[in-house]
Amino acid sequence: MFTGPLPRESQIAAALLYAGPAALLSHRTAAEHWGMRPPSSEPVHVTVAYNCSAVSQPSLVVVHRSRAFRHLGVDTVPPLTSRADTVIDLAVAEPTARGAQQTLTELVTNRRVAAAQIQERLAERPPRRYVKALGEAMSRLDTGVESMLEEIYAVDVEAAHGLPTACRQAPFRVDGRMLFEDAVYDHIGIALTVRLDGRTHLEPDVALTDRRRDNAAELAGRSRLVFGWPELNARPCAAAREVAAVLSRHGWQGPFRHCPKCPVQAP
């Protein structure tokens, strides 16, 4: 009995009691427990067996059904879907295929779950939608995409505009240390480095390393471009034009493809 709003733990306990003894926390609620999402006050998400009679209750509990129910849970208190199944459920719940790809990439590259576990579960339990899109996201992870910023570059800059696919995580020795560049084009005969700077690049030690990278690239005669989150997230087409300009200067013959987001060209 409570005289005020239910604490989150009590909301979760009540939702599990309502859904039945075999229910599992899933989707956004399981993600909270796995540390993938911050705590929230939204309805509790549970997954039950396909023939369970429980139904969703507005603003309180969202009931999901699964024919693979007995393969989803892990032995925890409270009972949860596994890390990999939670990530897949979050991705499939996105309103668009692109959103599904970004959710999966974010959680894998943030080390919330191993890519191999996701790959295994996608094979064992193909989701009801976005199968192709999630497979494409996993393929990009296999080729070296290691952050959301790199995912945006691969999809919204390179692929969307017909640019060559970069070689990712390319090793270079700088000041006696082995460092890895986000994207290079040496494999097509063009000495261009593209660095994608996230928040960690604002830290003093990382910024110093970046300056040493720049100097080493200049001494080696390499072209280089640097993009951060604001420009790639808001203006990927502008970044694509800059990359295309440098590639063209070194002999790439294109063609550059205009994507649906590109500004309309004046006649």
How would you describe what is shown here?
- Strands 6-7-8-9 form a four-stranded mixed sheet, with helices on both faces.
- The longest helix is centred in the last third of the chain and has 16 residues, at 204-219.
- It is built from ten helices and nine strands.
- The protein has three domains: 8-81, no CATH class; 88-142, no CATH class; 152-249.
- Helix 3 runs antiparallel to helix 4 (97-109).
- It has helices at 8-19, 27-33, 83-92, 97-109, 115-124, 131-142, 148-158, 204-219, 229-234, 236-249, and strands at 24-25, 44-49, 61-66, 73-74, 80-81, 167-174, 177-184, 192-197, 223-228.
Biggest sheet character = 4 strands, mixed
Q: For this entry, what is the oligomeric state of its chains?
A: single chain
Spatial ordering of strands, largest sheet = 6-7-8-9
- Secondary-structure element order, as H and E? HEHEEEEHHHHHEEEHEHH
Distance between the termini: 70 Å
Mean pLDDT metric: 92
Q: Which word captures the global form?
A: elongated
Q: How many separate helices?
A: 10
How many domains make up the coordinates?
3
- Alpha carbon gyration radius: 23 Å
Contiguous runs where pLDDT drops below 50 for at least 5 residues: none
Count of beta strands: 9
Structure classification: alpha/beta
Relative helix content: 40-55%
Strand content: 15-25%
Provide key terms for this protein:
single chain, elongated, 9 strands, three-stranded mixed β-sheet, 267 residues, alpha/beta, four-stranded mixed β-sheet
